[in-house]
Specification:
The radius of gyration is 31 Å and the shape is rod-shaped. It has 2 domains: 109 residues, Immunoglobulins (Immunoglobulin-like), CATH 2.60.40; 122 residues, Immunoglobulins (Immunoglobulin-like, Sandwich), CATH 2.60.40.10. The protein contains 2 helices and 19 strands. The protein is 8% helix and 47% strand. Strands 12, 14, 15, 17, 18 and 19 form a 6-stranded mixed beta sheet that branches. Strands 4, 5, 8, 9 and 10 form a 5-stranded antiparallel beta sheet that branches. The longest helix has 17 residues. The chain has 257 residues and is mainly beta.
Length: 257
């Protein structure tokens, strides 16, 4: 008889511990704007016939990031359930998330917790930060003085800026040149000076607003005086980087002594 009572009580305890007192639901957009505050609204319904009231152990609507990236930690958030959620009632709770700048999908569980216990269903959501790359390319020096017969090399320097709101992917970056125009009296050799890939490579993963200097330290200059225009394109792993603003025509002035 004692054994039957023990089993009965055990079943009651297990039943209570595994029961859900509420359901959580997310039905908004999964698109996250990087670098900005995003409002995420979650509804919680009390499925009991009793009110859920504030206790010493807090009731928290909780977002739990399931991935491993540091950027995804932005989704680890809680909102207090409040003083009371009436029986059968539904209430909305708003999270404000600073959108990660790293593009990708972020898997998140949304639950109602009391202390460490999950008291609701698990609402699984994949939030998405879309890649939107932007770049600014500008020469740091626009005029060079060449000593004919003595100047073998010039240092070409370009300032590369991530003007977008998402971080660039890590990879091998280089610059490609295509000649656009040259002085009327330029030799055939000089007309082709800015019509090739310098092949220098930098390893970057620039954050929004970040910049880097791209230097080509031994560039053989033209020896015909005048202005040379050429198109500069940023390459990622040997291919044109798909970024707004990529591909810019610049002009350098060459003075020959």
């Amino acid at each position: 008889m004692k054994r039957l009572i023990f089993i009965f009580l055990s079943l009651i305890i297990v039943g209570r511990s595994s029961s859900q007192v509420a359901t959580v639901n997310f039905s908004g957009t999964t698109k996250i704007v990087p670098g900005s505050g995003n409002r995420i609204t979650v509804s919680v319904k009390n499925t009991q016939k009793l009110d859920i009231v504030k206790t010493r152990t807090p009731w928290l609507v909780t977002m739990i990031y399931k991935g491993s990236t540091q950027a995804g930690q932005a989704f680890n958030k809680t909102v207090d359930l409040g003083n009371i959620l009436g029986a059968g009632k539904t209430q909305n709770y708003v999270f404000t998330i600073e959108g990660p700048t790293l593009p990708g999908e972020y898997d998140v569980d949304i639950v109602l917790k009391r202390g460490s216990d999950v008291e609701s269903n698990v609402e699984k959501v994949s939030f998405v930060v879309s890649a939107s790359y932007e770049v600014s390319i500008s020469p740091k020096v626009t005029s060079y003085s060449i000593d004919r017969g003595r100047t073998r090399w010039i240092d070409l320097k370009f300032n590369i800026v991530n003007t977008g709101n998402t971080a660039w992917p890590e990879g091998k970056y280089s610059l490609d040149f295509v000649a656009v125009s040259s002085p009327g009296g330029a030799s055939s050799t000089d007309r082709k000076v800015f019509d090739h890939d310098p092949r220098e490579v930098e390893f970057w993963d620039i954050e929004p607003g970040g910049s880097a200097e791209f230097e080509i330290p031994q560039f053989a200059p033209p020896y015909s005086e005048g202005s040379y225009s050429f198109r500069v394109t940023l390459l990622l792993n040997g291919k044109a980087f798909d970024a707004e603003g990529n591909g810019k025509t610049v002009t350098l002035k060459i003075d020959v002594k």
